[in-house]
Design a protein that fits this description.
The structure holds 2 protein chains of 2 kinds.
Chain A lengths: L13 H27 L8 H8 L5 H36 L11 H14 L6 H23 L5 H25 L7 H5 L9 H27 L3 H6 L4 H23 L5 H15 L6 H26 L2 H4 L4 H19 L17 H24 L7 H8 L5 H35 L11 H15 L5 H24 L5 H26 L4 H9 L7 H20 L1 H9 L2 H5 L5 H22 L5 H13 L3 H25 L8 H21 L1
Helix pairs in contact in A: 1-3, 1-12, 2-3, 3-8, 3-10, 3-11, 3-12, 4-5, 4-6, 4-10, 5-6, 5-10, 6-20, 6-28, 8-10, 11-12, 11-14, 12-14, 14-20, 15-27, 17-22, 17-23, 17-25, 17-26, 17-27, 18-19, 18-20, 18-25, 19-20, 19-22, 19-25, 20-21, 22-25, 26-27, 27-28
Chain B lengths: L1 H17 L18 E4 L5 E4 L6 E3 L2 H9 L6 E2 L2 H7 L10 E2 L8 H6 L4 E5 L4 H10 L2 E4 L7 H16 L2 H24 L6 E10 L2 E6 L5 H8 L3 E2 L26 E4 L19 H4 L2 H4 L3 E3 L10 H15 L2
Parallel strand pairs in B: 3-4, 3-6, 4-5, 6-7, 8-10, 8-11, 11-12
Antiparallel strand pairs in B: 1-2, 8-9
Helix pairs in contact in B: 6-7, 7-11
The chains are: A mainly alpha, B alpha/beta.
């Protein structure tokens, strides 16, 4: 799709199309101007439309005038600049990758910049804006380079975005780890990460404008070559366009634009994805827009309208003093998540062929050895988890404890540590089982509860309950998490079902739901408990802190049921995961079975989230590693995956609790650090 | 992979076998000494102590400050470095063990200290408090109450004093505080400053964006200000506990011509926007109180959510700044 519009049946004459494009552009400019005017009348100071008018005509009180000049106008200009830069960057990235889903967010450019800035904040360096923009640029470019390098420039429409979204998750997890570790150095960085266009004076805007200008001018100069790319690599090469150089230059310029926007306002989410998407229908209507030189500015204008529109909307809906705390980016992220989902359901999925793993037939001995070794490792990790912590214990202590004759300290340490270890173990096992079931049912090697947004929905449900009923217990939390997970999975699977569960579409829709859920969680926590960023981070990054046995109970119950059901239905799982036709030929109707497996995996993920927060990628890594170790038969995959999941999360929790003790890191963070490279590795492998 | 797993298993087995023994003798029976104490804390829970607690852990800095003021040196403190940065009004007299962050203090470390008493606040998750109760009696304080900020502060001081057997010292502290209030109010009145419109805030700068936290009448500082005869100029609504609100530089224009004071910390670079990025900000520089030179930076290290000693230092600082 991208910029290459299908030729309309009746070709309008060049002249009318050009006036059409001009008229649309003029309308866009008018819209942006109108939003800009409304925007400068909103704010915390008592400076409304009449005062603004007076200020602009030079008749206002000096105080009002200074508000308009040093606060309102810079904010409005920043909104324009950020929106335009992101819109243009997104349009350029989509054009050169011929991918409607490419954008600074989905190529991890924003996450890379955020990570780089977080790293700088941690070192305690206080840098001038210009220097931090340089760091953001390097971070964003590096992330984009990794994503593009991994997925190959211009190949695979959806894989590119998957790689980018996965890297975004991983980098964000690491950055949030830094925030937890260095709460003071990074104070406010979390909120800043949501993106806010507030400004103090014109300094920031004036420093970033030249950088953005370089990016825009560069892209406009490159426009002709970008147009040629739309014809396909070979055709472009035939026209004498250096394909590779054009792509690299365009990506660098787009990264420059996004870095300018990120430095100025934080990552204002998804403008780069939405703006070109809104412009795209215009391309079909008015052929003037098919030329990059025209469509880039149009995307820029649309981006500006989006950012200013979100800002205006937010301040129109909530009181100005509350709106101060709600970053513009939360609003655009919510809008963007919806866009991502809608576009994913429409995107043509070229990478239909499943990433079939090399099927090595494993002998029974291999299975038995692997399982027994894993059981040994699991026992070892569990023992290590129980013994290690801020205070190191010995086995005798545990024996005393088990017999109820340990001293007070030991009793306590174990009383609190054991539930945490159990929460980690069972959450890992449950997520691994859920991942195995989801992958079997959807026959999708990239599917797992966190990536599919099921865990995100569960966390949203849990946070909703926690903020409204602070004393909610284990079962209540599990129920709320299940309600959230159920709603999100109905959305994800419902939308992906249209057009029959295409491989990557499902995952993209899931990503969209996951992003939307985390934006909503941020919004909820900012509105209800603005001074408690730790709370948000704990929920979003997965933590076993403060868990008691009663919190773990629902998880254990569901896990027992889950393992039992899986054990009884192993053949059915094998058949479901094979292909669409074999079961049908065998006269089996699998619709109900599938639904059952899905409900079970939603239950498993929801209780895991209630017990240990959002822990991503376990459900992905464990089944894969299991299949690599013992082959595809579910009789073997299920136990091995469950063991691996338990080992992985328990180890992550152990590391998080001990390495920087007495300060602690969430288990989810560590698993994301392990899981992201694994996800990317799977993506690369599936390219072959 | 398989070899890796085998090695891992072998290592684990070795560690497991060599880790026998105990780090603590089995079942120690506590000896009872002094009069038992029974208290009711902010959550309505009964706190029973065998006697005045001497080995105390504090999870929030206001509890820590109160303990130090009462002459009880806490053996465990959350984020010791942060406390030393933000609360130099009541410096730690010992080297307490760092028990981790204020949001998630480490259970293990707390337990290993074998405290007689843990002073926590309702800001800690209920689940964590429940666990801490198994280590030692937990006195859970309501950290602040916007309906009666000073009353809540003294209530907390009294509770801690009762639990540590230092009620005499607490009475002394309260009397000193009352005297300080009266003295400050008189000094301000003598200088003709009674009823002065006054706004206290702190601010943070992140990536060139400034957020400002107004301390409304419900905040502890706001409560003290009113006792001093100052009029709180903030019109924004604060939260239910700390009486804090949020605004930006623009929001300051609603203050009008007031006396403006703030506290930052040199040890925390992001906390001093008023002398930093705002120095060049046109909105800031055209605010009437900035133009008239009525912006006062009070000394670092006065903890805005602390106890009577921090507030004494605060009163001295305000009076000195305004009567200058």
């Amino acid at each position: 799709m991208a910029v290459t519009a299908t030729t309309p049946a009746t070709r309008p004459s060049a002249a009318t199309s050009r006036t059409g494009a001009a008229a649309v552009t003029a309308a866009l400019i008018l819209l942006v101007a109108a939003l800009a005017v409304v925007d400068i009348t909103q704010g915390t100071a008592a400076v409304g439309a009449p005062e603004v008018w007076k200020a602009l005509t030079g008749r206002a009180e000096p105080a009002d005038a200074s508000v308009v000049i040093a606060s309102r106008l810079p904010r409005m200009t920043a909104g324009l600049l950020v929106g335009a830069a992101l819109g243009i960057a997104g349009a350029a990235l989509q054009a050169v990758s011929r991918n409607v889903l490419a954008s600074p967010d989905t190529l991890a450019v924003n996450a890379g910049s955020y990570f780089a800035l977080g790293l700088t904040a941690v070192t305690g360096l206080s840098l001038p804006l210009f220097a931090s923009s340089g760091i953001a640029f390097v971070g964003g470019l590096a992330a984009a380079a990794v994503v593009l390098g991994l997925s190959g420039l211009g190949t695979g429409t959806v894989r590119l975005v998957l790689a980018g979204s996965a890297l975004t998750l991983g980098l964000t997890a690491v950055t949030e780890g830094l925030l937890l570790l260095f709460p003071r150095q990074t104070e406010g960085l979390y909120q800043w990460n949501q993106g806010s266009i507030a400004q103090n004076g014109f300094d920031g805007v004036l420093q970033m404008a030249p950088i953005a200008l370089v990016g825009v001018v560069g892209l406009l100069l490159l426009a002709r070559r970008i147009d040629a790319l739309a014809l396909g690599d070979d055709a472009a090469r035939g026209l004498g366009v250096p394909v590779r150089a054009t792509r690299v230059t365009a990506v660098v310029l787009a990264a420059l634009l996004s870095a300018a926007a990120v430095t100025l306002a934080g990552p204002v989410g998804f403008v780069g994805l939405c703006a070109p998407a809104i412009v795209r229908p215009l391309v079909r209507r008015f052929r003037g827009f098919t030329r990059t030189r025209v469509s880039l500015p149009a995307a820029g204008l649309t981006g500006a309208a989006l950012v200013l529109g979100s800002d205006v909307l937010l301040r129109a809906v909530v009181a100005a003093d509350v709106a101060v705390g709600v970053p513009t980016g939360v609003v655009t992220s919510l809008v963007g998540a919806v866009f991502l989902i809608v576009m994913a359901t429409r995107a043509r999925d070229t990478a239909e062929a499943a990433a079939s793993e090399r099927l090595r037939i494993r002998s029974r001995t291999v299975f038995l050895t692997t399982t027994s070794v894993l059981v040994l490792v699991l026992v070892g990790v569990t023992i290590a988890s129980v013994l290690l912590g801020d205070s190191k214990l010995l086995l005798g202590d545990v024996l005393n404890w088990a017999q109820g004759r340990a001293g007070r300290t030991i009793t306590f340490v174990l009383d609190t540590r054991v539930p945490r270890v159990l929460a980690a173990l069972f959450a890992g096992a449950a997520l691994a089982l859920a991942g195995t079931l989801v992958q079997a049912v959807t026959r999708n090697p990239l599917a797992e509860p966190a990536v599919l947004g099921i865990s995100g929905g569960a966390a949203l449900g849990a946070v909703l309950l926690v903020t409204t009923v602070p004393l909610a217990g284990g079962w209540g939390l599990s129920a709320a998490a299940f309600a959230g997970a159920a709603i999100s999975s109905v959305i994800v699977f419902g939308l992906a079902a249209r057009g029959g569960f295409q491989q990557n579409r499902l995952v993209l829709v899931g990503f969209g739901v996951a992003i939307g859920a985390s934006a909503l969680i941020s919004l909820l926590i900012i509105l209800t408990d603005p001074f408690n960023a730790t709370k948000a981070l704990t929920w979003l990054s997965g933590s076993t802190y403060g868990r008691s046995l009663t919190d773990v109970l629902p998880l254990v119950a569901v896990l027992v049921v889950g393992v039992a059901v899986a054990a009884m239905r192993l053949t059915e799982l094998d058949l479901v995961s094979l292909d669409e036709d074999t079961p049908r030929l065998l006269g089996l109707s699998l619709g109900r079975g599938r639904l059952g497996f899905l409900v079970l995996s939603v239950l498993l993920s929801a209780t895991a989230v209630a017990a240990a927060g959002t822990i991503g990628f376990v459900g992905l890594v464990a089944p894969h590693a299991a299949r690599a170790l013992v082959g595809r038969q579910h009789a073997r995959v299920v136990p091995v995956a469950v063991l691996l999941g338990a080992i992985l999360v328990c180890t992550a929790d152990l590391v998080g609790r001990t390495v920087i003790a007495p300060t602690q890191l969430g288990a989810g963070l560590m698993t994301a650090v392990i899981g992201t490279p694994y996800f990317l590795h799977l993506l690369i492998r599936s390219r072959r | 992979m398989r070899r890796l797993l085998l090695t891992a298993a072998a290592t684990v087995a070795a560690v497991t076998l060599s880790a026998c023994g105990t780090t603590e003798p089995a079942a120690d029976d506590a000896k009872k000494t002094a009069e038992p104490i029974t208290l009711t804390d902010a959550t309505g829970a009964k706190v029973e102590l065998d006697g005045p607690a001497a080995k105390v852990v504090g999870t929030e800095w206001n509890a820590v400050e109160n303990l130090v003021s009462l002459g009880v040196d806490p053996i465990g403190v959350s984020d010791v470095k942060g406390y030393k940065t933000w609360d130099t009004a009541v410096p730690l007299k010992n080297e307490p063990k760092d028990i981790g962050t204020r949001g998630e203090p480490s259970m293990d470390t707390v337990a290993s200290l074998k405290p007689d008493l843990i002073v926590a606040t309702t800001d800690l998750p209920e689940a964590a408090v429940k666990q801490l109760r198994k280590v030692a009696p937990v006195l859970t304080l309501r950290p602040a109450d916007a309906a009666d900020p000073i009353g809540q502060m003294t209530k907390n001081l009294d509770l801690i004093a009762q639990a540590t057997g230092t009620t005499q010292q607490a009475d002394k502290l309260k009397k000193q505080f009352e005297a300080k209030l009266a003295e400050g109010a008189k000094a301000l009145a003598d200088a003709g400053l009674a009823g002065t419109k006054y706004a206290f805030a702190d601010g943070y700068v992140v990536s060139n964006q400034v957020s400002i936290r107004p301390y409304t009448s419900g905040s502890l500082i706001g409560g003290v200000n009113e006792k001093l005869g100052l009029k709180n100029a903030w019109t924004v609504k604060g939260d239910e506990s700390y009486g804090l609100a949020a605004t930006d530089v623009e929001g300051l224009t609603k203050l009008g011509d007031v006396q403006f004071a703030y506290i930052g910390s040199e040890g925390d670079k992001s906390s001093t926007p008023f002398t930093g990025v705002l120095a060049k900000d046109k909105v800031w520089t055209s605010l009437p109180f900035v133009k008239n030179g009525n912006v006062h930076r009070l000394p670092d290290g006065i903890w805005m959510f602390g106890g009577p000693e921090s507030m004494n230092k605060y009163i001295d600082a305000v009076v000195a700044a305004l009567t200058k």
